[in-house]
Design goal:
With 456 residues, the protein is of the alpha/beta class. The chain is built from 16 helices and 19 strands. The longest helix is centred in the N-terminal third of the chain and has 22 residues, at 125-146. Residues 14-23 and 207-215 have low confidence and may be disordered.
Length: 456
């Protein structure tokens, strides 16, 4: 074979190999494949409004509704800041609504970031709650369009339900024990214990006639408002834990909330004194202004600490988590701006071994509780969930409240949050007819014996 014939033979062979390994012709993409490549159809926000309601069983409650140009697609979000509800309504209706109309609701992260910087000053509870209502409503829309519950969009379940704690209280050790046993009989394994002291407005001691969770009469001193002195309270807490451990044993988890009402040195003493009773956590032993004191507490004892329901900004909690100075992060999700920042906070907590205990009081709407639960079941950092139950009047307005059974909160399995709000009935329970004042002024009315105000 001469050189010319050899070259032709080689090129023919290469052509054959090229044909062998060349991409095969395939059929045109299916409509499903084309749609997958494009993503969901274009959609725009057409309306944003706040719904202010107060059905018996809920205080002043703010819900955000976002409507779109896609027929039947809208979302609900919790923006409840009970003490300043009408200020949040103004922020939603007059500031955020014009800012959001025309935007793509799929762009949740971008919308959150632009809302965050849009007022220049950031880190305020009114704007954050308004932002949270928008953010949660956008996640609801996303879930409905994807035909998935929100927890599935967050990565899916790592647990089937969220273990909860309930609030036991009484004006004596015996009545407190009875309250706790009532919850235990319902399958609850974690119980917060709070006890009243006659004449002292202890936080969380709900007894007949106490109002707003306080019990205490005017002191007869230089003022006529509720009176609270920290020393009788601090001395009573170890006795309460001793009694409850003796009667309930070691298997039931006990929690307690100091509500930031004692001095730093009293907080350290109380944390050390309760160590032998192994509280599941002691909540808010110091105020947000004194979080640097957690370094001292951590160096002195192993008592588990929960903190955060008054936090607004990452500057308040990132250091506590990264330095492992607390055991549970307990922020109010609407207070930090919604699900978008909360899911990042849960991820941060997981890396440092801190667990979540999202704030879930009676002034969080059922929508807000569903947001808590979606994060609970999709995050490995979950620790415990504060739970509520609502009367029929709330269920009539909020159709699809989360199910509480045998000490567990369950997420809804319907797309989005799986909840619907009867706007006509919500309007019937208007705030002005239920309350004498537009805002909640119950905070800032408890004073020490000398007349100085108690925080919070």
């Amino acid at each position: 074979m001469n050189r010319r014939d050899a070259f032709l033979s080689m090129t023919a062979g290469a052509a054959g190999l090229g044909a062998l390994f060349a991409p095969q012709l395939r059929a045109a993409p299916t409509p499903q494949e084309t749609q997958a490549r494009r993503g969901m159809p274009a959609i725009r926000i057409t309306n944003v409004k706040a719904v202010l309601t107060a059905p018996p069983g809920l205080p002043r409650t703010v819900i955000v509704k976002i409507e779109t140009n896609e027929a039947g697609v809208y979302g609900w979000g919790c923006a409840t800041f009970t003490q300043r509800a009408k200020a949040v309504v103004t922020a939603v209706d007059e500031f955020l609504a014009p800012f959001l109309i025309g935007k793509d609701p799929d762009q949740i992260e971008d919308i959150w970031q632009t809302m965050y910087v849009s007022s220049y000053w950031r880190n305020g509870p009114v704007l954050y709650n308004a932002m949270s209502g928008v953010d949660q409503a956008l996640w609801d829309i996303k879930g409905k369009r994807a035909n998935m519950p929100v927890y599935a969009l967050l990565g899916g379940k790592v647990r089937q339900a969220a273990d909860v704690y309930r609030h036991a209280s009484g004006d004596s050790l015996e009545s407190l024990l009875e309250s706790a046993q009532g919850y235990i009989e319902q399958g609850v394994r974690h119980v917060r214990i709070q006890m009243a002291i006659a004449g002292n407005a202890n936080y969380g001691a709900r007894t007949e006639g106490s109002g707003n969770g306080f019990l205490g009469a005017p002191s007869g001193g230089p003022h006529n408002e509720r009176m609270y002195e920290p020393t009788p309270y601090v001395l009573s807490v170890p006795k309460m834990f001793e009694y409850m451990r003796k009667n309930l044993g070691d298997e039931i988890e006990l929690l307690h909330d100091t509500h930031e009402r004692i001095s730093n040195d009293q907080a350290m003493w109380l944390c050390k004194r309760l160590e032998e009773y192994r509280p599941f956590f002691l909540e808010d032993p110091v105020s947000p202004e004194q979080i640097g004191y957690f370094r001292h507490i951590r160096s002195q004892c192993t008592t588990s600490i929960a903190m955060g329901e008054l936090f607004n900004s990452p500057h308040e909690f990132v250091g506590l988590i990264s330095e492992r100075l607390i055991d549970f992060i307990r922020v109010h999700i609407s207070q930090i701006g919604g699900v978008t920042p909360a899911r990042k906070l849960a991820a941060l907590s997981e890396f440092f071994g801190v667990r979540t205990a999202w704030h879930g009081p009676g002034d969080t709407s059922p929508v807000g509780h569903l947001a808590n639960i979606a994060l609970d079941v999709s995050s490995y950092a979950f620790g415990i969930q504060e739970a509520q139950q609502w009367p029929e009047t709330v269920h009539e307005v909020f159709k699809g409240c989360p199910r509480l059974e045998n000490g567990f909160f369950y997420p809804n399995e319907a797309p989005g949050w799986g909840i619907e709000i009867d706007e006509t009935l919500a309007a019937k329970y208007d705030v002005d007819s239920r309350y004498d004042t537009p805002f909640d002024y119950s905070w800032g009315t408890t004073r020490r014996r000398d007349g100085s105000i108690i925080r919070p």
